[in-house]
UniProtKB/TrEMBL annotation:
This protein's name: PX domain-containing protein
Annotated Pfam families: LRR_9 (PF14580), PX (PF00787)
Record keyword Repeat present: yes
Keywords annotated in UniProt: Leucine-rich repeat, Repeat
Species whose genome carries this gene: Cimex lectularius
Keyword Nucleotide-binding: no
Sequence ranges assigned to domain PX in this UniProt record: 6-115
GO CC terms, sorted: cytoplasm
SMART domains assigned: LRR_SD22 (SM00365), PX (SM00312)
Molecular function terms, GO-annotated: phosphatidylinositol binding
Length: 458
């Protein structure tokens, strides 16, 4: 968790264990510890001097307690003495100013990056400036993980005592801001936070303060960080969980449940209509998807899925994205997907299209970059009367001579409605299809109606 000087007023330390030289400039490496949390800051003497001038002018610090400035002196003995003196200086002024904790001092020591109270003071300052204050509730606001963690931790803390002026802030401003947001993105890049020993997997948070939240994006966030989802289940309409190394969908849908193998209606996300779990490490789609009874769009792209998900209870699912997985067949596809309008299975390992026959509502399918070799595999789709959009590029069959015409021929009178590989059927292709059908009819000894050929050509 983040540091909290408010609750560790007698459990902190500052030391300068060493110096480092960069481009001929001496930097003093400062170790700051508050309770179990520690981090490093580096400053040159010039920055110490600037801080001291501010503290002297604005906060009554004695002018003489900072080690004096001298001409450039690289003597090791001098550097060592200054290191010790600066260490004593920082410890002294933090002790003196602990209750007021001026912003120049807290920022100098990077409390604004690691301490719950100072993080929120800085956040409040940011949302109060002109550009952020005009943010509409429908805009997407981006939070760092440590910021939402700080909000969650602050909810547990008592108000700072009146004499602790430096810790005072109007937390209600932050709560009011959060309560009006409709769209929130929470992200984190590194496994640790800056130079600290804080691990992001320990930055737990809950989102009860976000009363109007409708869309949530978690980017590179460990699902274990979210410790409460009860409020989200009642209001969230869109959720995106990407680059989170998610292995099971239940890890996010049942993040606050101990026994995740038990699926109960009480844990349903009834308002959720769109979910994106792409760019994770999901191998098998678990039964927790039953908790999304009203889902209309589901993305599981860029995972490790090797078989079609056997989904039950998703009666409203219309769009399913499974690109960039390792699916080889349509085994498991059944009438439970009967309302699917669009299916993306590009960049998989599909050889056969057997099983697609049941998707009677399908209007579009992307099968690009698979391993389909035989044009006759299209026979499994020709009876899908609403199908008009098909992508087959990147498959072995797309290298066959007159590939487009042979595919379009499969759809008979509906050939003119087919958009193949993002290209509408041309009149020349329709004419060729009509001729091929005429030849086939003759070979089969049939006598086709003239109107049939007219429909191909027009």
């Amino acid at each position: 968790m983040a540091s909290c000087l408010l609750t560790h007023q007698k459990d902190w330390s500052i030391d300068i264990p060493r110096v480092e030289e960069k481009d001929g400039v001496t930097y003093y490496v400062i170790n700051v510890r508050v309770g179990p949390v520690s981090w490093q800051v580096q400053h040159r003497y010039r920055e110490f001097s600037a801080l001291h001038a501010t503290l002297v002018n604005d906060h009554g610090i004695s002018k003489d307690i900072l080690p004096p400035k001298k001409m450039i002196n690289k003597n090791p003995n001098f550097i060592e003495k200054r290191r010790t003196d600066l260490e004593n200086y920082l410890s002294s002024i933090l002790s003196l100013l602990l209750l007021t904790l001026p912003k120049p001092l807290s920022y100098f020591l990077d409390f604004d990056k690691y301490d719950v109270i100072v993080i929120l003071q800085k956040f409040m300052s940011n949302i109060s400036n002109d550009s952020c204050y005009k943010l509409k509730p429908t805009d997407d606001y981006h939070f760092q993980l440590i910021q939402v963690h700080a909000i969650s931790e602050r909810l547990k803390l008592p108000c700072p005592p009146v004499n602790m002026v430096g810790f005072q802030h109007d937390f209600s401003v932050i709560l009011d801001f959060c309560s009006n947001l409709h769209k929130v993105t929470i992200s984190e890049v590194n496994s640790s936070v800056g130079s600290s020993n804080i691990n992001k997997s320990m930055l737990y948070f809950e989102l009860s303060s976000f009363k109007s939240l409708r869309k949530l994006v978690l980017n590179k966030i460990d699902p274990v960080n979210l410790i409460k989802a009860e409020d989200l289940r009642q209001k969230l309409e869109y959720i995106t969980v990407i680059w989170c190394e998610l292995k099971q969908i239940c890890d996010i849908l049942l993040c606050d449940t101990l026994h995740r193998s038990t699926i109960t209606e009480a844990n349903s996300w009834n308002k959720l209509v769109e979910a994106d779990f792409s760019h994770n490490k999901i191998e098998i789609v678990d039964d927790s998807l039953k908790l999304l009874p009203n889902i209309e769009s589901l993305s599981l792209s860029s995972n490790l899925i090797y078989q079609m998900p056997k989904i039950e209870g998703l009666d409203n699912l219309q769009r399913l994205y499974l690109s960039k997985n390792s699916i080889s067949s349509f085994e498991g596809l059944n009438l439970k997907f009967s309302k699917l309008v669009f299916l993306d299975l590009s960049q998989n390992c599909i050889i056969s299209l057997k099983g697609l026959e049941c998707l009677c509502e399908l209007q579009g399918i992307n099968l690009g970059s698979n391993k389909i070799e035989h044009i006759n595999e299209l026979d499994h789709m020709t009876n899908l009367q609403k199908l008009e959009y098909i992508v087959l590029t990147g498959n072995p069959l797309s290298t066959v001579i007159d590939y487009r015409v042979k595919i379009l021929e499969k759809f008979g009178e509906r050939a003119s409605k087919i958009c193949l590989d993002n290209e509408q059927t041309t009149q020349q292709e329709l004419d060729t299809v009509a001729v091929l059908h005429a030849i086939r009819f003759v070979k089969e000894g049939k006598s086709p109606k003239t109107s049939t050929f007219v429909s191909y050509a027009h």
